Amino acid sequence: MRFINTVKIPKINWRALRHGQISFRMIANLFIISLLIIPSYFGIRIGFFDLTALRVIEILLYFSIFSSGRKRQEFISLLKHCKHIVWIALYAVIVIYTNLFHLSLNTIFYWFTNVFMVLFAVMYLLRYEYSPEQFLSLIYKCLLFVCLLSPLELVIGKSPFLYLNTLGKEVGSVQRFDAMRIKGPCWETNSYGLYLMIFFPFICYDVRQKKIDLCSQPLLLVLFIVNIFLTGARLAIGQLALSVFLILILSGKKEVKKALLFAGVFMPAVLLFLIIFRDGMAQGIWRTIFSAVDFIFNTDYSVRFGAQADILEDSAYYRELLFNNTILKNWPDPLLGRGGAFNFHLYIEGYDIKSIDNFYVAQYVTYAWPGLIAWIFMSVSYFTDSVKKAVKNINLAKLFAICWICYFIGLWYLDQLQTFPLMMIFFALEDSITAKSKRSTLFEKYDSSLAE
């Protein structure tokens, strides 16, 4: 954690704040904090529109940009030179016309305020405001806060972030196999699992040495692993295993030895805890681990720890039915989706399906083939760009590729669960890897690994 402590984030000038003087850096810091820490159920309701903390700070940020002639020109220039702008614009057009035809203004607002505006705001901040050290240090501090606070749910019986639920949204406690599952600042446990796995590859980046190091943030690494297991999300555990495997493959020999040494100390301690404390929580962790193993290898080890085999089988078969009876049958309409306000409901082979736990199916139902194809091309354009940079031995681009692979595999088993604002951070980060930053040589074209 040495890097986190040595890189300073500018402190709030309380005297200036009392006089109504808020610096652009202060707004930028609050914007990042609102993305990572403040839950989306914190805000006020205005008609059909939720004015969340993120949207309030986003308005302040964009007002600050467009009220300054220099910043406004910088922002416009950034849009002109964005390599992915065509796909972003195409998808935005599809979102607009679909949700105007099947009226859902709230969905339009969501995509613009929580996705597109977040993407361009973070791109601007990375290009003109933050140095890489400042940006990643702020990210790490936010993640440290979230990972320390979230497990308190096991003690107090509800997420501590729920004290900010001013919108009165239903965010209940969730259990699997009689074990409570934490959800952090998210709406549900699977969403928190996606949240953690979006950021996991990037806590394995040594900013100073510009190299991949699984143990570059040891405290965060331990907290991430603990939080992921406490979500009880089989998918997140599977993603974690895949991510660690890919990170080790791309690491140097020194970093691999360091990671193995860390595992040699950490894993026996965890196993000892699980063996000694045979309570509901420990059994729940065992069930979660083996449920993930069963999920990947099609085994049934978790049943020995109390998991219900019929529920696990139904979960897998339901997803197969969902895909076969929507995309493969061109249902409901291959050209014009049903929009964000559509209440999905299918009754197939005795299954009453009311939710879509597959992002690609959800995109097809909502925006039909045009929306699904536009989204895939937009996302793949970022991925291929990162692969090109990874081939040039840019380590941050390699981690972005890992993040992309794990996240988009996860979307086969879940909807995005309001995690796109977080993913936009790394779309912006990928876009800035070789860009000339006004603040510093952020993501240099070639990093230190090239010289090794």
From TrEMBL:
Sorted UniProt keywords: Membrane, Transmembrane, Transmembrane helix
Transmembrane portions of the chain: 22-42, 48-65, 85-102, 108-126, 138-157, 219-247, 259-277, 364-384, 396-414
Superkingdom assignment: Bacteria
Protein name in the entry: O-antigen ligase domain-containing protein
Organism in which the protein naturally occurs: Murimonas intestini
